[in-house]
Design goal:
about 130 residues, alpha+beta, five-stranded antiparallel beta sheet, about 10% helix
């Protein structure tokens, strides 16, 4: 089995922040993935292989993950209330490499309070088909 520190993780559901709706992906940073000590795990080698492996990795060095967002470009093709529908990456791209944009590119750098309606669930408040874009 592959080390979980080398895996990419996706949210099934969409999240809403103000006028924007997105799915979230967390991927290991390339420079950290290259330095992983235990690339593969033998699940039969011990009753618990995950805890010791993760402890070894995190004691050896800090490990960074990239937080990425796939913005909703339209509710018909990218529904938020049907969790089994995969959002096509080609609909989120403005160039071949940016279907999943780094979170830092969102421009929200004011650090202010965005409570209340900004963090409501996708289906809890009405919004239009443009998803804010």
């Amino acid at each position: 089995m592959r080390n979980p520190m080398l895996s990419t993780y996706w949210s099934m559901g969409a999240v809403r922040h103000g006028d924007y709706i997105a799915k979230v992906r967390v991927a290991p940073a390339a420079e950290n993935a290259a330095q992983v000590i235990h690339r593969d795990l033998d699940l039969t080698s011990a009753p618990d292989v995950f805890h010791p492996t993760l402890a070894d990795e995190l004691h050896a060095r800090a490990f960074d993950f990239d937080l990425q967002l796939q913005l909703c470009r339209g509710l018909h093709a990218m529904p938020v209330n049907d969790l089994i529908v995969e959002w096509p990456e080609k609909l989120s791209r403005s160039s071949p490499s940016d279907a999943w944009s780094p979170c830092a590119a969102s421009g929200d750098q004011d650090g202010g309070d965005h409570g209340g309606h900004d963090h409501a669930g996708p289906g809890s408040t009405p919004f239009d088909d443009s998803c804010g874009l």
